[in-house]
Amino acid sequence: DLDSGKTVLHSNTISGAIDARQILYVPGHRWEVIGAVTPLPMNSTLIGLRLGGWLVALLTVILLARFLGSIKAHAQTLLALRENQERFTRMFTTSPQGLALLDDETQWIEINPSLCNLLGYARQDFNELRLIDLFAPEAQAKALGQMQEIRTTYQSITDHSRQFEAQLIRADGQPLTGFITLGICYRSNEETHWLLQVLDISERTRLDQLKNEFVSIVSHELRTPLTAIMGSLKL
């Protein structure tokens, strides 16, 4: 009671409590109402809940960081894979040698432009051709034998390819001497991919034949007078 200076109701408050004051006017008196709130000390349950909350928050941050790190690593892996695929595609497409990918049923998966130009076929023409159809009849058995040998030795040795010379038949029916590299480039439980590489050595073969004919002719022409000379000397 501000007029009489008496306290109507009193409760001891702790120092530092949060309080609020309000003046009330009643008939004949002025009262000051004081409300105080004393913060209670935290009990063990509340402390445990707060510590648990902080631990959960910390664990969440760690897991989130790892998750973001894995996403970043996965994205980098995909980017590197895409770059490797693009690099291989450019190499495959621009290679001056004839290249082709086939499955185990010798169905064409991919063919580069050099092989089409080398054999004179359009890309869609290969859909009607088997691998063996590219070889001359006398070379087909050799090609099939090489493929079977590669299949047989694939699991036991690290050499998964064979190189051999064989006659090929162009789209116009003209023969072509090719240096063939044929091998398994990928194998899983369900599929096998073959890589075919064809190098035109017709000109080299022709030059070797001309060289051999020249040597044979020169040898014959020199042998005849030398034989006569040797006969005369012996006589």
How would you portray this structure in words?
This protein is α+β, with helices and mostly antiparallel strands. The chain contains four helices and seven strands. It has helices at 44-94, 113-119, 137-153, 202-234; strands at 18-26, 29-37, 98-103, 108-111, 161-169, 175-187, 192-200. The protein has a five-stranded antiparallel beta sheet, with helices on both faces. A two-stranded antiparallel sheet has the order 1-2. The termini are far apart. 10% of the residues are buried. The mean pLDDT is 85.
Q: For the report, how would you describe the main beta sheet? A: 5 strands, antiparallel
Order of helices and strands: EEHEEHHEEEH
Which segments are poorly predicted (pLDDT under 50) over 5 or more consecutive residues?
none
Strand content range:
25-35%
Keywords:
235 residues; alpha+beta; 7 strands; rod-shaped
Describe, in short, the structure shown:
This protein is α+β, with helices and mostly antiparallel strands and 235 residues long.
SSE layout and pairings?
Elements: E1 18-26, E2 29-37, H1 44-94, E3 98-103, E4 108-111, H2 113-119, H3 137-153, E5 161-169, E6 175-187, E7 192-200, H4 202-234
Antiparallel strand pairs: 1-2, 3-4, 3-7, 5-6, 6-7
